[in-house]
Amino acid sequence: GGMAVKPVNINTAGVSELDGLPGIGPVLAQRIVDYREANGPFRCLDELCDVEGIGEKRVENLQDYAVAR
After folding, report:
1. Which residues contact 5 (CB under 8 A, 6 or more apart)?
2. Looking at residue 3, what is its pLDDT?
3. Which residues pair with 8 in a beta bridge?
4. HSE on the CB side for 4, CA within 13 Å?
5. Shortest CA distance to 8 belongs to which of 65, 48, 51?
6. Which of 21, 45, 53, 54 is least buried, going by the fewest C-beta atoms within 10 A?
7. Using an 8 Å Cβ cutoff, are 11 and 68 in contact?
8. How far, CA to CA in Å, does 47 sit from each of 22, 30, 32, 44, 50?
9. Are 33 and 15 in contact (CB under 8 A)?
10. What residues pair up with 9 in beta bridges, in sequence order?
11. CB atoms within 10 A of CB 24
């Protein structure tokens, strides 16, 4: 089996944690944090699509690695 990775909570994770997610670099990580501060917590992972530069495909790839609550 693979490594048991604890999913990253996108509402509490800092930039460095978010940066570690597949397909999310430091720039997108910062945008996620900025979006969260401006709009409040994400209700679901799909809301990441509202962040500039993050599309549905990228969010799909995050399903196993990130949670919104």
Report:
1. 64, 65
2. 62
3. 66
4. 0
5. 65
6. 53
7. yes
8. 17, 16, 10, 6, 6
9. yes
10. 67
11. 26
User: Cβ atoms within 10 A of the Cβ of 55, count?
Assistant: 11
- What pLDDT sits at residue 6? 86
CA 30 vs CA 13, 26, 37, 40, 51: distances in Å: 11, 6, 11, 15, 10
Reading the block at residue 40, the tokens are 């409040």
Q: What are the φ/ψ torsions at residue 2 (nearest 5 degrees)?
A: -80, 180
Residue 44: DSSP 8-state: S
Q: What are phi and psi of 6, to 5 degrees?
A: -75, 125
Coil vs helix vs strand at 8? strand
Q: Low-confidence residues of the chain, pLDDT below 50? A: none
Cα distances from 14 to residues 1, 18, 37, 56, 62, in angstroms, run 28, 6, 12, 22, 16
